[in-house]
Amino acid sequence: MLTQLSIKNYALIDKLHVDFNDGFSIITGETGAGKSILLGGLSLILGKRADLSSLKDASQKCVIEAVFNISNYKLKSLFKAEDFDYEEQTIIRREILPSGKSRAFVNDSPVNLSSLQVLGARLIDVHSQHQTLQLTSNDFQFQVIDALANNDNALLNYKTELKVYKTLQKELEELKVFQAEAIKEHDYNTFLLNELVEAKLVVDEEQSLEEEYETLNNIEGIKEKLAEADHLLSEEEVGIVAALTSLKNVFQKLATYSSKYEELYNRATSSLIEMDDLYSEVNDHQENIDADPDRLEVVDAKLKMLHSLKQKHVASNVAELIEIKNQLEEKVSVTENLDANILKKSEEITTQESQLNTIAKGIHDKRLKVIPELKKQLETILADLGMPNAQFKIEAQFGKTFFANGKDELSFLFSANKGGSFNELKKAASGGELSRIMLAIKSVLAKYIQLPTIMFDEIDTGVSGEISNKMGDIMLQMSKRMQVFSITHLPQVAAKGHSHFKVYKEDVDDVTQTNLVKLNHDERIVEIAQMLGGTEMSSSAIAHAKELLN
């Protein structure tokens, strides 16, 4: 519950500090006194975006701080999820700097606004006229029914599975789009792939083919040079082998005279052995080299094909062509397997759809079970609020579409008069009736879930007399389970509160300021008497005020 609120330099508020109690608290004040300013400051605590125009003194920062006792709210898991420091006495602070920047803190740790909004929604429910209009939306109506049906866990599970279902649907659609595009390219990709497969590409093959081509294309010149080498090596009188043989014999004789010539002999012998081997290899080459025009044609064709493929695929070598072939194989394979992939994805969707249907049916059945009880309680409360003929016709039909909260199509119809036709709330109920219906719903909800602190902003607008008295009783009854605030202009409601605060304006040094003060018993009598009869209080107004308070 909200235990303290401090506001500094906000709108018409210079400095304000107030302590709140549990139970039913009343806030009153003349029109324009600043009740909306108080709500505006509170909304900043709940995560509303800040506005530089909110500063009373543009040269000073605005600070709004609220203290909440959250020991009974079971919020530890939320604090952990949002990475907040948990404290039973939690302090939320907002600061608006003169530069226009805004900062938010939970227990002195900085937080972002989205996280603060999540926490704020669990701390205070500020009921405004705008929220009364939400009563006419299906989303809100479902929230009420699901609260009574205790559908929280089922809805969480449903939303998780629905997300999976939609992801699968998206993937299936992408597969079908890809298939449509891939079919157009499939034949061309297959042609390109077959070309590369038939080329029987081998890494580094091109270099060896180029060498073979040069050899085959220059056979006569090679034969001529080999013959010349053979002659130089083997000519009987002046050939290299004959000369080396003679040189070896000379060194052999020298070695007999002195061992220092033995090294020369060894080297000559070694050279002769090398020349003999070279001569043998030249002979082999001569014997094995023949013109082969057929092979030359094959090699030439292969090189031209590789050159053409490199040009076509903008590749610099055979390795890149092989990589392109692999990519084409993948594309063709994916295209050829798309039907199987689409069938598999469709089967996954069918399985997921069946699971979703089971969860949605469970949600639907629990809704049907509580609708009669909700209808009965609302009609009973509204009868006490001066609407004895109010009737609801609430139906949830299990449909075919997966919505965000199940498969139900909700019909939430209302009739205010006996014999009247049922219609949508926004068409069948007046503003005052909508306020009473909303109060009835909040009263019912308070029995089933632990609502946060709730603040009713003039929910009693448009009613008076005994009806306002009944509305006050309902809010008083709600305050047994939660902290309730009511901003009101009705003395009958104001007299029901356990605590009473007054918002007022005053001029300080020719500057108008808004303030909030807690009234004691005598001050409450005066305030309620003024609400009954105006600033010129009559003795009957004072007596009536005392009677209401007692």
Helix content: 55-70%
The order of strands across the largest sheet is 2-1-4-5-6-7
Poorly predicted tracts of residues = none
Rg calc: 47 Å
Mean pLDDT: 87
Number of continuous helical runs? 18
What would CATH call the class of the domain at 1-123 and 452-519? Alpha Beta
What is the SS-derived class? alpha/beta
What distance lies between the first and last C-alpha atoms, to the nearest angstrom? 27 Å
Question: What is the global morphology?
Answer: elongated
The count of strands amounts to: 15
What is the CATH-assigned architecture of the domain at 1-123 and 452-519?
A: 3-Layer(aba) Sandwich
Written description of the protein model:
- Among the domains are: 1-123 and 452-519, P-loop containing nucleotide triphosphate hydrolases (Rossmann fold), CATH 3.40.50; 178-337, no CATH class.
- It has 18 helices and 15 strands.
- The protein has helices at 35-45, 76-81, 113-121, 129-134, 138-149, 152-198, 205-217, 219-234, 240-257, 262-288, 293-313, 318-384, 425-428, 431-448, 465-478, 491-494, 521-533, 539-549, and strands at residues 2-10, 13-19, 24-28, 62-69, 89-96, 102-106, 109-111, 124-127, 391-403, 406-415, 423-424, 453-457, 484-487, 499-508, 511-518.
- Helix 7 (205-217) packs antiparallel against helix 11, helix 12 (318-384) packs across helix 14 (431-448) and helix 17 (521-533) packs across helix 18 (539-549).
- The mean pLDDT is 87.
